[in-house]
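SEQUENCE-TO-STRUCTURE ENTRY
===========================

Subject: a protein chain together with a token-level encoding of how that chain folds.

Sequence line: the amino acid chain in single-letter code, read from start to end.

Question of interest: how does this chain fold, as expressed in backbone structure tokens?
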Amino acid sequence: MLEQYVRKILTARVYDVAEETPLQSAYQLSQRLGNSILLKREDLQPVFSFKIRGAYNKIAQLSEAEKARGVVTASAGNHAQGVALAAKHLGIKATIVMPKTTPEIKVKAVRARGARVVLHGDAFPESLAHSLRLVEEKGFVYIHPYDDPDVIAGQGTVAMEILRQHQGALHAVFVPCGGGGLIAGVAAYIKYVRPEIKVIGVEPEDSNCLQAAMAAGERVSLPQVGLFADGVAVSQIGEHTFAVCRDYVDEVITVSSDEICAAMKDIYDDTRSITEPSGALAVAGIKKYVARSAIKDQNLVAIDSGANVNFDRLRHVAERAELGEQREAIIAVTIPENPGSFKRFCEAIGKRQITEFNYRFHSKEQAHIFVGVQTHPELDPRSELLKQLDEAGFPVIDLTENELAKLHIRHMVGGHNDAVINERLYRFEFPERPGALFNFLNKLGGHWNISMFHYRNHGAAEGRVLAALQVPDDEMHLVPEAFNSIGYPYWDETDNPAYKLFLAQ
């Protein structure tokens, strides 16, 4: 199998449109981690992503009869732009089916490269189904984003360049993974030419389809995938890609959204470039691998796979990067409601920088404060802060890993309302599109009174809502059916300590 893929990689037709991207040293990150970290800058491609390689190689391999029929694909991201540019260069008609929820900037980018855009459905599965119908109805040739040998071979040229650009010792190459086209191509080439080099996949914790498949020994379908790193939000690894990965990928590391944000900041600090969340996965994986294995003085490559990020998402990234770096702690502290309490609390904090402070009167006896404090993973870890506050007599709860606190509570701290009864708290995610919030509120408000609501646009494909409903005990059994009819993922947060401290009745 490897020999066949290597032959296809060596003869892949990608350089008519793709660039040989640099392998760039990340000096500051290298110093911090005690290893030489090299970034393969696929974000510098003409479409700001490696996807142009596989798309062009596949389309270039089509017969003249197939080219005359035109090509179609379903994609809301980098693959769409890759197919559009490849088809334009080869003089082929291209149709790209995109969900109606696709940000306008991406729709314009595809149209600017000469492709016809069809907006269909609210989510990718509907767009995919429509693109396949067009294959049947119009005779178009479908260009798969990852599960195709020619696409895999095109992506594998990334590995060919890495080994040519760095011919010395190389401990591991870290590869972001969604459907597996890139990591399959990289693994096939590296394990054939330099089998001693490790190939390590990196996935988000909530989109780990390759890790799940390798653990099960077969392809599995995730019931739900996280959308923060939308470039790798795939529920099932490809069939062709898994055939390579199951034998030639050494391991898969998963990382949190906060760790991805921190990696985006790391890349910016070293290159002054802004990558997309999926493009920063490999760097996040390297940091986790180095911390776990304690290796030193090794050469490690991270594939920076793309830079197609909406500008308005950067607010959220900046908020979460310090948490991902373990340089900020989010805590809830109870202090006596009397003169001098704030002063004693500040003395207990010491010289640490307070990044956020939220307070509202709670009772005559005590106050609950929501605080962000600067920490350092080695010089001043979070555990030391918690210990000092506890020893100073301040009950403290660590909310740094509490998603509800980080997404919503920090923006809502305002005290309790004793007039509210039978309140239940739920967190939702819904597709971000025009009218989505209104439709969601309309459906939600038809059952029970909404006693609290928080929504904040993060510039992402999904909206995040916190809603409190007044549900009598004898109607609790009706809640699951009502929410399932709305059709959005939800979590019961009624027992979340952040809610109980700051907002519950």
About this structure: The chain has four domains: 2-50+149-321, 52-142, 326-401, 410-502. The longest helix spans residues 149-165. The longest strand covers residues 328-336. The chain has a mean pLDDT of 88.
